[in-house]
Amino acid sequence: MSRVGLGQGSVVSRRAVLALAPGLMALGATRALAQRAPGPARIGWLGYVSPPDAGLENLRLGLQELGHVESKSFVLIPRFANGDFTRLPGLVDELLAERLDVLASRGPSVDFLKNARARVPVVFAYSGDPVAAGFADSLAKPGRNMTGITFMALELSTKRVELLKELVPQATQMALLSNPEHAGELAEYRVTEDAARRVGATITRHLARSPAELPAVMEKIRASRPGAMIVFPDSLTLVRRAEIAEFAAHEKIPSMFGWSEFTDAGGLASYGPGVITSFKGLAVFVDKILKGADASKVAIEQVSRILLTINMTAARRIGLTVPPSILVRADRVIE
Questions:
Q1: Looking at the domain 3-151+277-302, which fold is it?
Q2: Torsion of the alpha carbons at 180, 185, 188 and 194, rounded to the nearest 10
């Protein structure tokens, strides 16, 4: 499980904090929100990272592009956990006391908003499966006062395996680096395993639940000497993308990633969206809710702009010749 420091000699898992969260929030959530007072819309932001937060900054830009003017038509009220998940329940209480019109978040901090949704609509950007995470009944009809964007699409997992095999035809043993705390990871793994079998490869799953676990997991991958590697995209691997890309380059392991941020950080190839710029899409959902839409009825969207990105510098570092069939289909080639 993801471990978070409480103090010297003490750790707690993110899952344990989530188990305590309903009771902790109940202590501070004793009154219903009053109707919104006249004035700018009040938009809360819960961040598990330290500022500046790419999610918040792109939400701000997205609102401005939709014609909103900060301090006139909206104000942002952020709270940041600075990487300490134990702070998130208290920060949720603080935000609920702010008489918000909508509450937005991204990544693993969204897990802490399931109790808040009874009092304020929640908009999210999430790399996992919102249904498996308990945010929604379905993508089309969320039904739980939460809506937003998911970057997960199981069909992308199949395509990533196929592209990696095309990049490295001789690879019959593939390593998979993933975070089991990531909602939907097991379903994604099963799809990936099936796809690997169809192209004549086997997958060995290596699990990292926290940044502290990554070095040992990468050592196991190195020792197994895989012909290629797939890295599932989520908040953990995104934060450590440069370290993972450098490991793959140093060990000469051709690797496929899920988001273009990984290839920007030195990874060989990615097939998926650019997740950071996609955060601007949160503004569309916030705008709809501010105009009166019911979050329970606003369909959750899967990011549709999918890019194949190839980093030729990374290819040269590992001595890989990228097949012309891949290059001609690439949406972006990093030289």
A1: Rossmann fold (3.40.50)
A2: 30
Domain ranges of the chain: 3-151+277-302, 154-272+306-334
Q: What is the pLDDT of residues 182-222, one digit of tens each?
A: 888 999 999 999 999 999 999 999 999 988 999 999 999 99
Residue indicated by tokens 């690439």? 330
| Phi–psi pair at 37, nearest 5 degrees | -75, 155
Of 18-27, 223-232, 307-316, the least confident: 18-27
Q: Hey, how many other C-beta atoms are within 10 angstroms of the C-beta on 173?
A: 15
pLDDT band at 25; cut points 50, 70, 90? very low
Instruction: Please compute the mean of the pLDDT values over residues 268-297 and round it to a whole number.
Output: 96
Domains 3-151+277-302 and 154-272+306-334 belong to one CATH topology: yes
| CATH superfamily of domain region 154-272+306-334 | Response regulator (3.40.50.2300)
Q: Is 212 helix (H, G, I), strand (E, B) or coil?
A: helix
Positions of E strands within the chain: 3-7, 10-13, 41-47, 74-80, 102-106, 122-126, 146-150, 173-178, 202-207, 228-231, 255-257, 269-272, 301-302, 307-311, 332-334
